[in-house]
What we know:
Blueprint: H1 2-21, E1 25-27, H2 28-31, E2 37-42, E3 48-50, H3 53-63, E4 67-72, E5 82-88, E6 91-98, E7 103-106, E8 109-112, H4 120-126, E9 129-137, E10 142-146, H5 151-155, E11 159-162, E12 167-169, E13 175-176, E14 186-191, E15 201-212, H6 215-229, E16 240-244, H7 253-267, E17 270-273, H8 276-281, E18 295-306, E19 311-321, E20 324-334, E21 339-348
Amino acid sequence: MNRKIYFYVFILLFSGILAGCAKKNFLVGDMISGFTNIEVRDGTAGTMISLDKEQSEELYNYIKKMEFRKDKGNGEVTGWRYALDFMADGKVIDTIMIQDESTIKYRDYFYKTDDLTIDLDYMASLCQYVFKAVVIDNNKGLLVKPDVDSNEFRSSDKISVGTNSTIIYDEDKKKVDLSEIQIGDSIKITYNGLILESYPAQIAADYINILESNLLIDGYITIIDDIYKDDSGLNSDINMIALNLYETKILSEADKEILLIKLFDMYGLEVKESTFDQLVKEGLINKDELYFPKGILINISNSEYNEDKKTLKFDIEKWRSGLGAIGYKGKAKYDGEKWIITKENMWIS
């Protein structure tokens, strides 16, 4: 009887030893649950991004069915590529370290996968930061104004974008050169999350997607250029163009800033937003003689923009003096390639 008991005990102990020595398989889906989102750390760039719920579920579904086998014992983690921190209530509840495309570390043990490999390009895409911006300069380097709701705008209202190795796509998703990006364009920038805290702030872009041109700014450029060229004698010896846009409610402050930059590039003259009274106060207009010695004042009012029909209605005038001014009521329509202006009630003094 005692011999049988000893024999069974021996069998149980021996089985336990074999089980302990056997290589264990590991499924992420069996071990990790109860998290709210995942934070991904890039071991190479030193950056971290917090995934939203949808992104976290996508990543979890991608890795949870991968089967890993125990590879070796304890060891220090060196040279890891990515760390996945599983979060709940703002705290890390579990972590998986991705060493390479087939090796992870989990709770002090290394595991390998034989059948499937981890897509490191996919992991890299999760660590990329994306924001939308408007181009405000592309002559001396790409300068953008981030969307006001973006985290990047909280760093700086202007960002200089490095483009040495950037891949650029146009609206049709075709690769294009940097020269295709125009002032006023709406673009999407993908980068690694590193922002140099200067002014303007600086980043290096991996990808840039041109989303759309700013047709409204192009429309204003067209009508301003039209009246600037009309009765060109009023432009004699000027070094300034003053724009009165204060009654124009359809342009954002960013749009106005871009408009001034584009006009400066076109004419090489100082361009500023101002009114008749402000120019008088600055001593630029002689109120007694009603004369603007070194500039012209362009007033635009009663603007209405129909985005669906791509039409812009407006009143516009160019003023140099009491006896030197022109204006008209106009309508501009975008025909798919350019803006066409129709004029009525033209006047001259």
